[in-house]
């Protein structure tokens, strides 16, 4: 995600993202107890119909994962809320499907297709891959994918050799692909992040960066002092995040949790903010009592998001020279025209491609990412053996 000039000049598009949950201070503000639900499924080869054993099954942006058994079956227990369930298998195209408690009533069937080089992949391959790509573009990639925050600076990429860099002079575009999941050790938050990066693209001409991928988290082991530090850092990462905002909207606790929302109105080419007198009415907030999901469809497509409980990081001044003068964090969110957003109880929302973040929320990237399920305690979860059908 491109940095370096005024935050209003860079649009950040996340295709699968968004940050997760965490403990607020010493006592979690959101930490709740949920029953959760069991998702069962089977993974087969699209061509032969044979089961795929040891396929990876995981809820994206969580620490929850399992593998298929000899019959291609799996069972995974998820805390209440919505998730993107991803299925990956070496040599096959990945598949992702949205799952919720109401949808988990029968066995899901996933049919994976063997990988074939697409025309785009062939086109990329025919171009000259940048020699010593990590040496030339590694720092740029770190800044725009992992980030420039304090926590991002404590991230180490284990396998940079998995990345392949392609630059198109004609399109003025940098494309980064990975043939195996990128492994990022986040020593600030205590996570090893396995990120199956489909692509990272930076369009220099339009100052737009985007990436598509499937992250899964693994808890690091540490002593009591390290665990305490990680808990504190995770709390800091959560405050003011998009995840906290989505949960605040769901719970109708936007103001109480330190957020202020304003519409951005354009008049004769000049943009100015408008305070919302009827906050939830302006968002067209509606909750479905039968499913427990919330739908919002703001009257204006661009919103200013002010988080007034934290100051911006000093590092953010490199992207916004006026940040040091603010005692709040300023972001904007742009909704796709004509599209509403659905929010689940755990803060998961969709479609995530229908939102563009800018400003401070876009400044926080993979280095500040946390798993969705971190502070959701499940009551008496079933003991599920990876790949079992129990």
Beta-strand fraction estimate? 25-35%
What low-confidence regions span 5 or more consecutive residues with pLDDT below 50? Answer: 1-30, 382-390
The end-to-end distance, rounded to whole angstroms, is: 43 Å
Helix content: 10-25%
Number of helices in the DSSP assignment: 6
Question: Which secondary-structure class do the elements indicate?
Answer: alpha+beta
What is the oligomer described by this structure? single chain
Major β-sheet annotation: 12 strands, mixed
Number of strands: 25
Which overall shape is indicated by the principal axes computed on the Cα atoms?
globular
The domain tally reads 3
Brief write-up:
By secondary structure, the protein is an alpha+beta fold.
Descriptive terms for the model:
390 residues; alpha+beta; Immunoglobulin-like; 3 domains; 6 helices; disordered C terminus
